[in-house]
Amino acid sequence: MVTPDVTDVTDAADAATTGATTGATTAATTGAIRGDSPGRAARRRHLRRVGGAVVWWWTAVVGLVAISQAVGFTWIPLLFVLQALTPYLFAPSLPIAAVAAWRRHTRLAAVHAGIVVALAVLAVPLVVQGDRGSTGPDPVRLRVAHANTYYRTVEPDAAARTVLAFDADVLAVTEYSWQFGAAFERAGGDERYPYAERRSPGDRNGIALFSRYPIVEAEITPVHRSMLVDATVSVDGTPVRVVVAHPLPGMDRESLAAWSADLAAIDERVDPDPRTVLLGDFNASWWHPLFRDLLDEGWVDAHESVGRATSMSWPNDLPGPAFVRIDHALLGTGVVADAVRDVDVPGSDHRAFVLELAVERSGTSG
């Protein structure tokens, strides 16, 4: 056994003491240079932990929405709201993915990169215009408008004047109320539109269709919680089917089930047949899978077809612009939108729209 030299032990102790002192002095000096104190450093660590928790919480929420989009189902009322906001929820994923990759947080970067890809795939139909269809020679020209006039409007006269100024051939109104109906009559609406189908039960289910052309067939029918107008208008001898729909929003479990059933029933009842227009307040956006299922039947969204897919219709009664489109016109075969414009309606939380349509003339198909 070798006995250690006392001098060697003393030298090692001196070196360790010197190293520790030097390290502490360096750390203290560095902290002083950065203006750190133990309390400030602790706060910074706390903020980093909170920031990380927030990012992962946001990741979980956005991931849930991404999964619901992939599966194609809206399970709960919260998802009904979040799906409508999909582009706004997904947009931060690009900078998060970039920063996470830079900081070498591989899993976080991969998750958000996948979300960016999902958003791009979902948005392709909105930015790439598809086939608008055709109408054959000498189509019928028709101006069609829709307005949700809000059943509790406090500006019925102003709303009626605005809607009449559309000078539409066919006018669809959702949330039609007796207040608006009386104002519409005072403003000369009944003289302007001698043909009409309307119902005003005093709630959001009020609905109406007004036409300058004869309505040769019509039915107002309940669809679960909502109402639907299904009419055929004779435009210079050409029958045009106009269907007005208003599924109510799914803000709780019961109403969400009814909204889903409403869209399914509309899908079952109305096909994108020749000379068919399906329009109204769907309380659904492109970002709701059930609405995309409806479009997949062969409908052409009028706003998308003229390059206005990013125009919004709701809410229009808050500071700032509307941020989601839930009011739509869907066109069957033989109907093409030449132009679409959106219009503010006094007293309503929705923007109205006016369509310039070309409709295949009867007897020219095929």
Q: What's the arrangement of strands in the largest beta sheet?
A: 3-4-2-1-12-11
How do the SSEs run, as a string of H and E? HHHHHHEHEHHEEEEEHEHEHEEE
Helix content: 40-55%
Question: Helix/strand-derived class?
Answer: alpha+beta
CATH fold-level assignment of the largest domain = Deoxyribonuclease I, Chain A
Query: How much β-strand is present in the residues?
Result: 15-25%
Outline, from the CA principal axes? elongated
Which CATH architecture of the largest domain would you pick?
4-Layer Sandwich
Q: In angstroms, what separates the terminal alpha carbons?
A: 107 Å
Q: Helix count, per DSSP?
A: 12
What is the tally of beta strands?
A: 12
Rg over C-alpha atoms, rounded to the nearest angstrom: 31 Å
Whole-number tally of structural domains? 2
Mean pLDDT: 89
State the CATH class of the largest domain.
Alpha Beta
Indicate the low-confidence ranges by residue numbers. Answer: 1-34
